[in-house]
Amino acid sequence: MQFSTILTSIALLGVLTLSANPAAQAQSRVAGTTAADQTILEMNQAFKKGNSKRLSELLPQMRDHTLEPWAAYWELRARLDTASPAEIQYFLNRFAGTYQEDRLRNDWLLLLGQRQEWGTFMAEYPNFRMNDDRSVQCYALLTDFKSSERDVVQQVEDLWLAQRDADDGCAAAADQQLKARKLQPQTVWLRARQGFENDNLRIATQAVGLLNAEWANTVSAIYTRPEHYLEGKLLALRLRTKELVTLAMIRLAVKDPAAAAVEIDKLRWKTQLSQEERSWVWGVIGKRAAMRLSDDALAYFMKGQDKFMQADQLAWKVRAALRAGNWAQVVAATSAMSESQRQDAAWVYWRARALLKLAKTQADHVEPQRLLQSIAGVRGFYEQLALEELGQRVTVPAAPAALTAEEKDAARLDPGLGRSLYAIQIGLRSEGVREWNYSVNMHQRGGMNDRELLAAADLACQHEVWDRCINTSERTKSVIDFAQRFPMPHKDAVLQRSSEIGLDAAYVYGLIRQESRFIVDARSGVGAAGLMQVMPATARWTAKKIGLVNFKPQQLSERDTNIAIGTGYLKLVLDNFDGSMPMAAAAYNAGPGRPRSWRGQAGAPTLEAAIWAENVPFTETRDYVKKVLSNTTSYAALISGQPQSLKSRLGLIGPRGAGAAPVDSDLP
Q: Does the annotation count 515 as an active-site position?
């Protein structure tokens, strides 16, 4: 909310008198903020700037305010490294049961671990309700082993290898287990390989540094010039040398898959590296080639052994096999996946499709049919595709039983949900979202049950906090409320504008739901704004194309202007991609140049759009395309009241045909 708008609203409406109940206060926040709210907002900015002095000055003014737990958290967190144990305990006692209490406990446990204050850590850790921080979990395992020598090595290894960045907690636990001769050096090298494969040098140097600090320096040099290291190596007989060569190969594969394929195929590496080491390298080469949509990708994968490849490598092998139409390799790669990875709906679906393609007898259809039935439904992209594969269409499921007054009251009176709504409605969206998620998922063990989730989602819907409405409703397991999951705010504006320019309203709604979750003033980190998340430069270009005169970028925060420009651009993109919804969605997310290249040049294969979408190189865009098309199908079922087909919206994707309309090279 703009400051000028806040002042105007206060002048018009006066200062609201709020009750002590946070949920009730949140409900009364129709417009404007109180002076105390302004102080909270100032404290938030002071916290972001690290201004602990100003936070301490303002904190007394927040006594008994709905968001006092946030104010007290910011003030104490900003000086946590100098705060006394008594101050910390006072905070934990005063705000017991709140998100802020557990959030500060998380921060304190990390600090205690870094300081190696194990007695205090062990006393406080059992009270940590969220327990979702891997670093804290690793510190807990470290203290457990230190006090009892319980066998924790497998847990430490799993947590360490699952960390996406280098951290102190799991590295410390790994170091402890390494020195106790519980953790094998091979695990350290696996961690280093992960770092190189994911372009994260710090992971690799931190890991190898546990073995030898000087070796970490060698790893840094290899990262910079892998070719130079490989040129100087003729022998790789010792474990350390073999692993350093493997790291150099991985780094080369990330930079230039074709060059790495030539290098790993040299006789000296065929004879000196193990099948496991060579398979990992081939997995990286195949993955990087597949991410470039290279026709060589599958052949690279097949030079290694699936059983030695990692989860992400196997996922990309499936994608490469789908592009090549090699259904046998889809089966082989999914067979090599871990049980948990194989249960992902994407791999269940493609494994079933592959088995059906390869089936020779009626008996061969039993397993793929079972797989499809295990995921078929309306919940997402692959669930909907599985439903269609079984001969059914996407329809609106029966609504759950209406919420009772008691169920609604329980949500309305929940302190965490109330604080969350209050925070969101005065402009503290990030804080409100975090507290909301904690309240529905972590405040009690196992999270809220389905009825409680429906009631919480209903509360968010009533306050038009659409992102929490949707996300909370999506958590239900045994029931589905389509009206909550696929709300239609601004219905008249969206339907009218879509009709005027010839766009499918369901497609527009499917895209808005993914872009902004219907947050009118949403703004991304790169500057995209409003319901349809339009970039200012794109908005200016589109405004000229659709004849919107005197457009100013700040108008993107206006609902109708944002819808006009967003739908106008979407229509131009859709027309430029010959009406292909998947490619238009990809263009909307990643720019039109990328999907033009992803569709291939003359001679490239024409693919099912589901296969094309699964092979989109960017994770964000790949997920975006699938979610927009799945959303679209669900909205179409709601709007029309008729069964719908996701497959018909996907179609086929291949190189541009000879008679296709010319590419609009100016399309931003």
A: yes
